[in-house]
Amino acid sequence: MKKIIFATAVFVCLAITLKANTYTAFFTKERYVQQLLDTIGDRYDIEGLEFVANDMSEKLNGTMLVAIRDTVLVEHAYGELRVTGEPPHRNVPESNRMTETTLFDLASISKQFTAVAVLQLCAQGKINLDDTITKYFPNLPYKGVTVKHLLTHTTGIPEYFKFKYTVYGSVAFVDNEHLLRVLEKQKYAKTFATGTRFEYVNTNYAILAALVAEVSGVPFEEYVHEHIFKPAGMDNTFFFTELVGIDATHGRTYPNVKDPKAESVSVNLLPRGEVVDLPIARGHRKVAVVAAYDRLNGVLGDKGVYSNVEDMLRWANAFFIDCKILPKEWVDFASQRENQLADGTLPKSIYGYGYRIEESPEHGKLVYHGGLWNGFQNLFLYRPSDNAVIIFLSNLYNKAHVGRSAEMLNILDGIQDGETTQNDETMNIY
Known about the structure:
Helix content: 25-40%
Number of strands: 15
Shape: globular
Number of helices: 11
Strand order of the largest sheet: 2-1-15-14-13-12-11
């Protein structure tokens, strides 16, 4: 009896310790096994999830993770940092091998961090959602456009991806300040009256990043590191502008470039002020062709964040579950429909603040965002009902994970594949 009591006491102490170290012992083997055995091993079909993950390995070049809260159910890395041939890849040299900690350009998944930065400043009373953007940037030709319009893609401001590159002059990489000057000078007309339509446009979030810098008084990257990445425990997440040794487009140099021809990529992390080597994937639009860094990579807010599946799981827990980044009421605002039009019309696409939302008959409410940019194709999904998190990061355009989040949710919910009406193509709207 004494042995049983002692063992039970040890087990309880261990459980408490593991819980207390959610962010420091996040992915240790001991935590992974212990949590599976003690909390969820009998509730979820781990073998089914592994089956789908194994099937994905035939096509996915990248990383994937499925978790409930901070407990990882499945986590894998497949393929190459520089893709040399069609997946699947076997016996990849270690120097070119994808790992679970490999970093990817998140593309439009980055928008959620921009939205949260704006909402933090709103919660502090420094910004109001109904403020017009011309209050902060009076030379912008977009009167009547509010912060909320920008957050919900209802502005009518045109897509800067479609501007001729010649308007940017000879700079190697355009930044947000440069983009603002172009908008002020060119005075591009709205594509529709503000508030009358939902149209996903990257320019909206690039302007929001500039707004965060203007109101906070520090560079956008610095603000996000200090107020979002740091409290979330995202120590290996950073911005494109912190890269060094990148292959600068058009043969010109970027301030952080030390060796434009270097294949290896290091990161000059702003918070620490030091250069560190991190495993970074390069984007590929097709096999064996590395996507050159685009001139627009320097524009942040709509894209530009680099991270991995593990830091993104830390983010999901810190933001949605523990509300460490924003009070719960603001988290709820971000993850519910906010894109109702001025006349009361509800667009078919549901958008909150930096997140898309789907109300699935089978799987309930899903909060998600895709990311597609410069050879990267990603998906981040969170389900509030059970704190499920599904993340796919890929550095090859081949739609390897299209349909897979629905399969994973079916397994989590005990649904046969043929019984769901969810169209997973919607999860790849960027």
